[in-house]
Write a structure and sequence with these properties.
Length: 174
């Protein structure tokens, strides 16, 4: 009687699927952590109430530099989110090692619009379409930078993505 154990190529494929699944789960955990940090930064001090009126702010700052600083800060805030999202997709999808970056723009815009909507209920905070655009661009830029770095380093395989995700998690543990 022959054994029912998988042949070596089948075993390797099964192991690769398990690695991709673990990488995707780990990536989603890191992505959730980064998103939580973004939410805390953007919604602090958490004193919500129904406003008498809603004021929409198109450009922040009294000077030209104040407005540009706000835009740069918003891009920088969402850049890690886009990078980790791209890393998570690459770690979990062995068929498409370099995912498209357009989804990061729309995902960033959706999260940012939700944050801006919640800021309507926080005294002293004003929703801004400029913030939504800057945040969406930051998420897109992060995903684009991941794609460029992965291609440059030859690190666009699921197992490398999984290992790259384990590093920040281990940093949190220690």
């Amino acid at each position: 009687a022959m054994s029912a154990s998988p042949t070596p190529p089948e075993h390797a494929r099964e192991h690769a699927r398990e690695d991709a699944s673990t990488g995707a789960k780990l990536g989603r955990a890191v992505l959730a952590y980064v998103a939580a940090v973004v939410l805390v930064i953007t919604l602090e001090p958490f004193r919500f109430r129904v406003p008498a009126t809603v004021r929409v702010l198109v450009w922040a700052g009294d000077s030209a530099w104040g407005g540009w600083f706000d835009v740069a800060a918003n891009v920088a805030l969402f850049l890690p989110l886009g990078f980790v999202a791209a890393l998570t997709r690459a770690a979990g999808d062995s068929r498409r090692a370099a995912p498209p970056v357009g989804w990061a723009f729309f995902g960033g815009a959706l999260l940012s619009a939700a944050i801006e909507l919640v800021q309507c209920f926080e005294p002293g905070r004003y929703p801004s379409p400029t913030d939504v655009a800057a945040n969406a661009f930051g998420a897109w830029l992060g995903a684009w930078l991941h794609r460029r770095a992965a291609r440059h380093l030859g690190a666009d395989t699921p197992i490398v993505g999984r290992l790259a995700l384990e590093l920040p998690v281990m940093g949190l543990v220690y």
